[in-house]
Specification:
Helices cover 3% and strands 45% of the residues. The chain is mainly β and 240 residues long. Strands 1, 2, 3, 4, 5, 6, 7, 8 and 9 form a nine-stranded mixed sheet that branches. Strands 10-11-12-13-14-15-16-17 form an eight-stranded antiparallel beta barrel. About 6% of the residues have low confidence.
């Protein structure tokens, strides 16, 4: 089975809120490369896994079409591997499988191309655990425990006061309209790249003409405002 070109699953706060208060709604993992471990079912490069309560109730392409009718909580799994959380693929017919009626013990691994792959070569893949379900309950989401997923880390010592009416707030766009970075009044930023909304999100602090960023992924970055231009990470942003 070949992998599709690298894509990043979309994550949003509304899904996170739904997962914290599921209220017995079905859960659908959609768009991932599904490895069932079941020789009868086989595998799919783009398929869905439907969970009801503690068990898998459906698997395969096309389940997303019923998401609205059945009030499913839908998790985008594009660019991931979806497979049994505990399986021994060296011993066929043994161990966990993604089979309807089985316990919904599922691991979702996010894929990423290794940087520096030569042009035309098959990219090496790295993985990290993105989502983990145990008996239908989401324990890990977006690489973090569900009770802390989507929350910012502790504020750094010496954090400057935030001004919700700072004149630099608003939308900043690079020269090619590819990167669009919005500095929000609550001290958060939301950066879109191309057709990827919210590619980066986190907190920011402005001190004089300098802006410091702490991304939710954990990295720091900075920029400088000069004559109406925001210089950041090699980009020139103007206000829109």
């Amino acid at each position: 089975m070949s992998f599709a070109p690298w894509v990043s699953p979309r994550r949003n706060d509304s899904v996170l809120r739904d997962l914290r208060m599921p209220e017995s709604r079905p859960l659908l993992l959609t768009g991932g490369t599904v490895i069932t471990g079941d020789p009868l079912l086989g595998d799919w490069q783009n398929a869905d896994v439907l969970i009801g309560g503690t068990v898998i109730v459906g698997i395969g392409p096309g389940l997303l079409t019923a998401a609205g009718d059945d009030d499913m909580i839908v998790i985008d799994c594009a660019g991931t591997l979806v497979l049994p959380a505990a399986a021994d693929f060296t011993a066929p017919h043994a161990g966990a499988t993604l089979t309807p009626g089985r316990s919904a013990d599922i691991a979702v691994l996010r894929l990423a191309d290794t940087p520096g792959t030569p042009a035309g070569a098959i990219p090496a893949r790295g993985t990290h655990l993105d989502i983990l379900l145990n008996a239908g309950h989401v324990r890990l989401y977006n690489g973090q425990p569900l009770d802390t997923a989507g929350t910012a880390g502790p504020a750094p010592e010496g954090e400057p006061a935030h001004d919700p009416e700072h004149p630099f707030l608003g939308m900043w766009v690079d020269d090619n309209d590819f990167v669009r970075q919005e500095l929000l009044p609550d001290g958060r930023y939301d950066e879109a790249r191309g057709d990827r909304p919210s590619a980066y999100q986190g907190r920011y602090w402005i001190t004089g003409d300098r802006i410091d960023y702490l991304d939710d992924l954990g990295f720091w970055a900075f920029g400088e405002f000069q004559d109406g231009i925001l210089h950041h990470a090699g980009y020139r942003f103007t206000r829109r």
